[in-house]
Each structure stands twice: as C-alpha cells, then as structure tokens.
Amino acid sequence: MNLDVSHVSYYHTYLVEQVFGYLLKPGVNEKLVATYDDVKGFLKEFEALYRKQYPKTPALDLDRLWTTFMRDLTTKMKVWTKRWLLYRADEMAKDWAAAAILSYAQEALTILEKAQEHQKKHGIAVDKFKPDVVFK
Q1: Please, what is the end-to-end C-alpha distance for the chain in angstroms?
Q2: How far is CA 54 from the centre of its chain?
Q3: Which domain of life is it from (predicted)?
Q4: pLDDT tens over the chain, length 136 residues
Q5: Cβ-proximal residues to 39 (8 Å cutoff; 6+ apart), any chain
Q6: What are phi and psi of 54, to 5 degrees?
Q7: To 5 degrees, how large is the angle CA 93–CA 94–CA 95?
Q8: In 10 A of CB 96, how many CB atoms?
Q9: What DSSP state is assigned to residue 57?
Q10: d(CA 37, CA 120)
C-alpha cells in the first residue's frame, strides 16, 4: 500500500466530513439560513401575487415545498455522507490492516532470506571442518 495514496484517501474523507463542519460555522450558517429565508419569503410573495392575478388557482404552498425540499435534500446528503464515510473508513482500515500484515510478512521474508544466506555461507565452513583430520 502506497503511503501517499493512504494519506490522500484519508484527506478526502476529512474534506467530505468537513462540509458539514463548514455549514455549522456561525457566519456560514447565518448566511445559509438567511438565503433560505429570502427564497422562502420570495416564494410566499410570488404566490400571493399569482393568486391575486389568478384567484381560482388552488394554493401551491411554494414556501412549504421549498422547506420540504431543503430538509429532504440536506437529510439525504447527511445520510449519504455518513454511509459513505463509514464505508470509506472501513475500506481504509482493511487496506491498512492488509498493509501492516504485508509489512510484517516482508520483514519476516527479509529475515528468512538473511538466515538462509547466512546458513549457506557459514554452514559450509562447519561442514568442511573435520575433527578427525585435525586431531590425529
């Protein structure tokens, strides 16, 4: 697993999560609410003017539709974001666990290769030593 890729993945999940943190900032939240209220007020005024011109038209309740739309949209955004963050965090945890196992496996393989190399080099000298030749 590439460490840079894992950092980028983590950073992306952090950015997605921080969208809601950004929306909660006092200045941003106030502007969001003010914009929502402005649109809602505009829709109320528009419907009032429209009903003056076309009095037989049933009430459309555009301001209520706007509220429902915004609530549904942001609720779905929250649900999707939460699910995606949990999914992504689970996937990253699996990848990091696999990377850790591979790291340990690589370390074990390196030790094994060194041991085998050591055995080949130094085992030969042990085999060549003949006590009965040395101690006649």
Answers
A1: 60
A2: 51
A3: Eukaryota
A4: 566 767 777 788 888 888 888 888 899 999 999 999 999 999 999 999 999 999 999 999 999 999 999 999 999 988 998 888 888 888 888 878 877 888 888 888 888 888 777 666 665 656 666 677 666 5
A5: 66
A6: -125, 75
A7: 90
A8: 14
A9: S
A10: 81
Residue spans per domain, the chain: 3-125
Vertex 64: Cα angle to 58 and 68 (nearest 5)? 130
**pTM higher than the cut 0.90:** no
Task: Give the span between the Cα atoms of 31 and 127, in whole angstroms.
Answer: 84
Contacts of 22 (CB under 8 A, 6+ apart): 28
Q: Which two three-digit tokens encode residue 4?
A: 């840079």
